[in-house]
Amino acid sequence: MKTILILSAHPDDEVLGIGGSIQYFKEQGYQVEVCCVTDGSSTQYKNNSQISSQKNLEHEQAFRLLNIDRLIRLSFPDMQLDTVPHYLLNEELSKVFSEVKPEIIFTHSEHDLNKDHRLIYDSSLVITRFVHRPENSFFKKLMSYEVLSSSEWNMEKPFLPNFFINIEKYLSKKKEAFSYFKTEIRPYPHSRSLEGIDALAKYRGLQSGFRFAEGFKIIKSFENYEDTETGTNSKNYFSNKPPVTRSYWEQNKENNE
Questions:
Q1: What CATH number is associated with residue 155?
Q2: Which helix (DSSP H) or strand (DSSP E) does residue 191 occupy?
Q3: Residue 148 in contact with residue 158, Cβ under 8 Å?
Q4: How many domains does the chain have?
Q5: Which residues pair with 8 in a beta bridge?
Q6: Number of H helices, E strands in the chain
Q7: Mean pLDDT of each 10-residue bin along the chain, 257 residues long
């Protein structure tokens, strides 16, 4: 089955960023799985088990409404991913990548104000670097999404989408899903509000010619075509050739002779 993997730093990030498009992909026959990387509460609400349980319940209610197939919780410390050795984050996300086998990954933006978001973006690049290997031929595309109250607050490097999905028929359910997050929703004019969701959907719609849209940025995109010279699959092309090691000096020597 075709699968989409959404990487989110905190509960509610995936609803804010891709809550409309999740419904679109479900209608297209995709399985949708979400990997929430942090616990979402240990720093903001230290030693508060009641808030932690409430946030988990909010998360699960929103997921049931959006018919998400699976939630994977890694439970790294919230707002402290920069204290975790980066290789550990890479290792855990690599395990998720290998298990889920996603055709498409949605990750955070590299310019988000939230540092947890940026570190997950970095790890997304790492775990998708060996796509030419035969065992990773399922993977086609890495895309980033925006999150209200993080992406738009970077004034110097705003989120610049180059791919849009029409969410006119899905917007109301996206807002309903976000309304479950009582611990996260804020009154307007805070961007993390129902009115903020409306405003962004209208703006991305203006950019794309839809009434309401979600915008994404394509980071990597691959097609599985045959190499016309060798007749081999392009993703396996390099593995079918013997390794050749040459120094920069040797290459330039030949070019200059």
A1: 3.40.50.10320
A2: none
A3: no
A4: 1
A5: 36
A6: 7, 7
A7: 96 97 98 96 81 92 97 95 97 97 98 98 96 85 98 97 98 98 96 98 98 98 59 40 42 50
